[in-house]
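Quick one:
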Amino acid sequence: MSQRVDPELMKEIKQYGAVGLEKCINCGNCTAICSLTGEGDRFPRHMIRLAQLGMRDELLGSKELWLCYNCGLCSETCPQGAEPANLMAAARCYAITQYAPLKISVLFCKHPVIGGLLATLMVIFFSIFMYGEREVMHPDDLELFGFIPYEFIHNAGLAFMVLVGLISALTILTMMRRIAKINGLTFKNFFTGAHKHWLLAFWEGVVVQSLWQKRYREECDIEENRKAWYISKWFVHAATMWGFLGLLFATSLNFFLDIIGVKETGTFVQLWYPTRLIGTLSGLLFMYGVTVLLYKRWKAVDKAHSFSRPSDYTFLTLLWLAGVTGFIIEIALYLPGAPTWAYWMFIFHVAVSITLLLLLPITKFAHSIYRMVALYIHALRPISKQETAPASTD
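Output:
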């Protein structure tokens, strides 16, 4: 079967941050050194080859694109200085702009300075929006949901979560359709058909590999993972992810308790109240992970962090601001009196959180979603006896 190549693809991916792509001579060192490649997996070598030959559909339909954890070992050992780890990150960023229904994602991946300015404007807009809904402050009590009505925050939060859910669902469906097309499958092959154990694949791909990070923790043979566990790369990554999921769970639990009529009573809420306790512990874990990730970007501690762009800081900065302002508000709740600054901190915290939520599925950090899907699909192999492999480019 003939393949249509696009000579402009390599130029496009370079605009997303790939450096040294043209230096690759396809020697295979990067694939040989990567401890996560296995039989049938040829990243990052295969991804570079697809980009060089302009095989756009094959690149966007490759599940291996999302299996890389960006440890940087391939770039450290590349004899040509082709920076294959950087190519993998740039290719994922490019793929997100192709999957997402809103092409605004191009601004955050391809034009990171403009994207950063847009994120700032979104925070300002939502801050003004929240300020417009304020009510008269109570002189003696710090009642944040009296300053801005709880019902308003609750309903706005649900609306934004539904919107993000729809965008995420559309992008995931687009990704799965592309993978199905390149591998000669139909969409239903991912859930039915010859493979009878898709639930086991979900457990292996999503729970064991993505959430628990088994292979990244046990098989990724990089110097950082051989250090003390609390500064190892896998733990920092896991702390950020699990902290975020814990905060999301605490927020969802709070909504659920409110729906069934169980509410926090009074301004002073005990630390061991379920949502407060889960949120506090998750927040500490989350802030630790994000702070270390920002530090590594700033100091360029390894090859994986040596070519940071503004887009690498945008989402991490928003995460850090959301976490810090959340803790400042919690501290204010336990202070005597009613510090006026806490009200304005609350507005800023809500505005940053909304912006963060809306940008999640359309920025480069949407890879956290795509990786789960790719690992699930990867765990399904072989899906059927009729599965066809893409044309070889080696």
